Amino acid sequence: MTNATGLKIKAIAANIRNKREKKNYTQEYLAYKLSISQNAYSKIELGYTKITLERLFQIAEILEVDAVSLINSD
Q: How many domains does the chain divide into?
């Protein structure tokens, strides 16, 4: 993975966290909705886990945002 790709992944993870916090949702809540552990969800937000497009769309649906808003930098 190139450094630029790694930075983009971290930016997407930060966007997910920011959107979750704006909704006042906990990591536990999103983990429950995604049928994964809180620890697994935490790794998504930290950028340790590569997520699939399917997972990105699931997260966007739960957060009630467009998936593109999770990809684009604010």
A: 1
CATH code, 21: 1.10.260.40
Q: What are the angstrom distances between the C-alpha of 37 and each of 5, 15, 30, 61?
A: 26, 20, 9, 18
Task: Tell me if 34 sits within 8 A of 59, measured CB to CB.
Answer: yes
2-13 mean pLDDT: 89
DSSP calls for 4-19? HHHHHHHHHHHHHHHH
**What is residue 4's predicted lDDT score, i.e. its pLDDT?**
85
Identify whether the C-beta of residue 17 lies closer than 8 Å to the C-beta of residue 45. Answer: yes
20: containing domain: 3-71
Q: What confidence score (pLDDT) does residue 1 get? A: 60
Q: Is 49 helix (H, G, I), strand (E, B) or coil?
A: coil
Tell me the three state secondary structure of residue 28: helix
